Every structure is written in structure tokens, then in C-alpha cells.
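We keep the chain:
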Amino acid sequence: MSEGSTGGVEEADFLLQSRGTSQEFGAWVVGVAFGRDGRSVAFSLADGTLRLADAAEAAAGFREVAAHDGACLALTPDVAGGYLSGGDDGRLLHVAADGSVAELANFGMMKWVGHLAAHPSGLRAAAVGKVVHLLDRDGQKLKALEHPSTVGGVAFDAKGKRIAAGHYNGASLWFVHSKEDKPRVLPWKGSHQSVQFSPDGTHVVTTMQENALHGWRLTDQQDMRMSGYPAKIKSISFTGKGRWLATAGADCVVLWPFFAGGPMGKPPVELAGGDGVLCTQVACHPQHEVVAAGFQDGLVLMAEIASGKVVPVAAPGRGPVSALAWNSTGTHLAFGTETGFTGLVDLSKR
């Protein structure tokens, strides 16, 4: 998708203009998340603020919340409602949909709360340096899980029984309710960063400092090497049933098959390529095999995996896409860019 003509830009912007709302927030959009109810939306910014709105009424404006003394670093839906926010001021916050803020933990000014996860069962996790802190629904600290190096990402499995952390030379898996805190270590040389479980809990995948992904099949700890990317992979997302893993890091959306014995020995599928522009963010629809993608030039689109059909959501020209998320029912898609431009599109049936 190029900006070669005004008509092309208007066509690419059709969904954002006709079914969405946009805002300029003036600071790098670090993250975007919808509340677990699927109705509220939050953007976290590098200036330390959060911007909140009801997704159905976002055109009326966003509420600005002064959250961190410094930059926001991580944002995720909290266990029951609202959001968890971590900052470079060492604070872990619960921010309610109405904008009220409660401090859950303060790890100190020299500590960065860089990675967060929460599970509907009531568990929360915050990675600070080499330690993953587990908290319960009431904010009480349950455990501090130590790792050999700085943690690059955390994730709960679908049942909330295990938590994974990426770090140097591999990933660690912990049973959160185990009396003896001893991790199962998944080794692979290199620096491992963000981490995800497959929806069925049978695989763990990490992004790496180098231009590659690494995965482990947990039944037999089989290594899965996914490489060949021209750039560092900043975003990965499993489809709702876990058949595909969508990834950024190339000039298209790269999808690895996690069925029929894949991904080892199976070529990836490439969607929405051809312009030589790097894909920076991906987010799979929670129900359908559709992936949303954001690109270095600001283009946002949706692609149907089976047919390869591509539908533009927002035109390029507003800065690299730095955040992208669906709500839990897949009716709303939100994105933000490094320049502070944000969009929210209502894709529900009318």
C-alpha cells in the first residue's frame, strides 16, 4: 500500500474514517489494551500517561490519567477489570476504567517494571530485573521468582497454572502454586525476550535479540527454530485456536503452522507483503483466523489467513505502528504509533 495518490490514501483510511475514531496524543504509544469486559480501551504512552475511554463512546474523547513519573513500559488487562500498568519509576499500578489509580507495588526508582501478565483466576505477574513477582487478586505478594538474568517477557498459560519467563540462554517455566519453586528450564543459547504459550499449552515460543524466534514443544522439549527474518521481531500472536503463529519482523505477515506436525519442516505462509515495508505489530482475532497487522510506515490492515484477502484499516503516513490489540470479542481493533497517533475501529455487525 503506497501513498502514491490521494485516492489511495482515502481508500486505505476508509474503515478508520467510516467506522472509527482517531486521536493525536503527542507521545510514543507504548501499549494498547482492552479491559476484560471488551468495552473499555486504554493506551499507555511514553510520557507516563494513560488515555482511557469507553470503546463505544471514544469519539467523545479520552480521559487522561497521570500514571508514572517517567515512561509507561507495560500495559495489560487486569484480572477483573481495569488495567495493570508498569513504569520506569518502579511502580506497578492498577488503573480502573474510570481513571482511578491504586499502587499495588513500588519496587524503587531505579527499577523498571518492564513486563506484565494477568490471569482471570486472580494472578498477576510483574517482571522487574531478574525477578518475576507474583501477586494475588488483592495485591498481596505471593512469590518472587528469581532468574539467572534480566527477564525479557512473562506469560501465563491459558489455565493460569504455569508462568513462563524469557531470559538469557532460554526460558523458565514455573508452576505458580507449587510449594517448591523450582523451574523447568528450556535451554537455547541467546537472549530470549517476549514469551507466549500456545493456547493449548503444548508449546512455548520466545522472540530473540537476534532476528529469530525459538520454540519448545513441551511434551518432549523438541526445539523449534524459526529464523530468516530481516529484522528483530517485536510482536507475535497465536490465532484463537492456536493453529497459526503470526509474527512481525519481515516485509509481510509471517505465519507459522502449529498443526500437522508444524512448524518444523513446514514453510511459513506470508500475507500482505510486496511493498518492502517492515511489519512491526501483529494481533490475531480472538475467534476467526484473521490477523491484524501494523507496518513501519503506519499502515494498518487485516488479512484473512485462508484466502489471503487483505482489507486496509488505516493509511500510512502517521509513524511506525507500535501497539495493536483486539477486544475480547473481536468487535473492536485499536492501534497506536510511535508519533502518538491512535485509532479505534468498530468492526461489529451493523
Summary: The mean pLDDT is 94.
